[in-house]
Amino acid sequence: MVSYIDAATAPLKNTGQIRIYDKADFEAMHAAGQLTARCLDGLVDLIKPGVRTDEIDDFVYSFARDNNALPATLGYRGYTKSTCTSINHVVCHGIPNEKPLKEGDIVNVDVTLILDGWYGDSSRMYPVGKIKRAAERLLDVTYESLLRGIAVVKPGATTGDIGAAIQEYVEGERCSVVRDFCGHGVGRIFHDMPNILHYGRPGEGVELRPGMIFTIEPMVNLGRPPVKVLSDGWTAVTRDRSLSAQYEHSLGVTEDGVQIFTSSPKGLDKPPLQED
Ligand code: MF3
Ligand code: CO
Ligand code: CO
């Protein structure tokens, strides 16, 4: 059975309880989320053919340091980079390296910046030069699935309602939802309760209450759902090597709906296609 706890008095570790945050906490999350969003905005002009993913990582590290923030992934469970950069059939947790991006790639950049102890977690897909129609369609379906998941969020709905909305839409578009990774509670802890599955049945899971803060971050494949993790211990790829995409927002449940903390101030939540 789930239980809820006042975030102000809860210990700063994942206790299995669901934290309920107050208005000041929402303001702090909004500040952290907006910093992450501005960082992701800054990548739109950087990402093009020939750019290396370790240059993206350097940008994020410098952006964080210039803004009194820290990238949450640095040193997290042995991870040593400031971002995850997941290209084409990489589902998530791709490790930045010296390989240049190629025309036609699609790359997810996942950034979590810690500002004043609050974690703003968000990711977007960036097209590299001109991309194929199939890739463009995958980005459209994945982004729309995130929006449909967010649209369900309000007090009284359940985490299963979110998953069901995403799964029903994605499978109706003849794509598939990755099962092995999920959204998560976030706040002053990177990965907290509840788990937000991106599939499921309406009415199942945990009831949403005002003051809850979590991510929604569906991973969608053009092929089948199964993934495998490469020998580096991090990089997750589609087993059938089909293209995979993901967008992520951090958000809070309000009295009458939802507040998205990581919305782009420039309207770049879904970075545009790069036309020549
Ligand atoms: N930002 C990822 C998420 O959305 C977590 C990355 S953890 C890492 O939850 F160690 F792989 F970087
Ligand atoms: Co993330
Ligand atoms: Co996340």
Give a quick set of tags describing it.
4 helices; three-stranded antiparallel sheet; alpha+beta; single chain; globular; 17 strands; binds 2-amino-4-trifluoromethylsulfanyl-butyric acid; binds cobalt (II) ion; 276 residues; four-stranded antiparallel sheet; Creatine Amidinohydrolase
Uncertain stretches: none
Report the CATH topology name: Creatine Amidinohydrolase
The main sheet comes to: 4 strands, antiparallel
**Unique bound compounds:** 2-amino-4-trifluoromethylsulfanyl-butyric acid, cobalt (II) ion
Assign a percent range to the helix content.
10-25%
**How large is the radius of gyration?**
17 Å
In the CATH hierarchy, the architecture is Alpha-Beta Complex
Order of helices and strands: EEHHEEEEEHHEEEEEEEEEE
Main CATH class: Alpha Beta
Structural class: alpha+beta
Share of β-strand residues:
25-35%
| Count of DSSP-assigned helices | 4
Written account of the structure:
With 276 residues, the protein is of the alpha+beta class. The chain has a single domain (17-260), classed as Creatinase/methionine aminopeptidase superfamily (Creatine Amidinohydrolase, Alpha-Beta Complex), CATH 3.90.230. The protein is built from four helices and 17 strands. The strands form six sheets. Strands 3, 4, 6 and 7 form a four-stranded antiparallel β-sheet that branches. A three-stranded antiparallel β-sheet has the order 5-14-13, with no helix packed on it. Strands 8-12-15 form a three-stranded antiparallel β-sheet, covered by helices on one side. A hairpin with a 2-residue loop joins strand 6 and strand 7. The longest helix has 20 residues, at 23-42. It is globular and about 50 Å long. The model has no long low-confidence stretch (mean pLDDT 98). The structure holds 2-amino-4-trifluoromethylsulfanyl-butyric acid and cobalt (II) ion (2 copies).
